[in-house]
Amino acid sequence: MTIEHTDRSTDVVEHPEQFTNPGLPPHRPRLGDEDPKANKLSERIVLAIFTVSVLASIASIVGYFAIPVDPEAGSMGNTRLSTIVIGVGLGLGMLGIGVAAIHWAKSLMNDHDKVEERHEIAGDEETRGTAVEMFNEGVRDASIARRPLLKGAVGGALALAPLPFLVPLIGNLGGDWDVSRFKRTAWAPGDNGDRVYLATDPTNRRIKAAEVTVGSLFHVMPWNLPEHPNYLDEKAKAVVLLVRLDPQDLKETEERASWSYDGIVAYSKICTHVGCPVALYERETHHLLCPCHQSTFDVTDEAKVVFGPAGRALPQLPIDVDENGYLVAQRDFDEPIGPSFWERER
After folding, report:
1. What stretches pass through the bilayer (predicted)?
2. Whole-prediction pTM
């Protein structure tokens, strides 16, 4: 049996040093470029979007004054409604400007492709002059001077858009800046010396130590706090996270050995960075995580910072149980809660 081997030469294709420029595809005119009615409709759409932006910004400002937040009312209703109105108005106001600008550029401005050869970054006087002329050409292309309604709409939208930011800020500049209020919370014993019970937030139910299982987490506030005349202010300072660990996992100093009860520890829920609520608990690592800037605190080691921008540990609430097994606060925090401030003293 004879097998023939055939040698086939491989054709070598040399790549050209430079490819031919295929050029730009043919320009396809838009409907508004050929139909004046369609062009006018696009202008009205842009005007309508800017109008929505203006009205949304105005609604946000009106909502700030029309729905005052009364901390003494003891209800979160006004707070939620005010936040929703301001947030939605602010969001629609800013979104309207962006959407209107995009629609304006896509439907009313020149859409012809332009090619510019690459050149050195540093340009001479002629190049800079050309750049200025190109900028002016873009302004003329926007036809802002020939569209007075759009000029007024975009001016009004841009003028009103920052106000939902500024009005609440300016309105609160004259508020109460007494930071000494953070040195005392509702966990402090009353005038009669009675200790304060730990209760579930927001159901206001007292907690027994027996129902706190290892690995569980409770959001806690002082019992009957909703009856306080300044409920919202006091709750903002007094919210606490309650966790039960295996007592062998706790690393307690001699000073704090009596602050926990059978592995149950309580720490302020207010992050020591900028005051966000620390509400995420990693059961496997025993870490508390702040969702705002990822500050992480080790529950087993007196809530010390293990990661993130927070500058100090979460304040610990000393706890105990009464004769019926209910958890109570021994006293208030031994340091101010929340972010650091100049007058803070331990």
Report:
1. 45-67, 79-104
2. 0.58
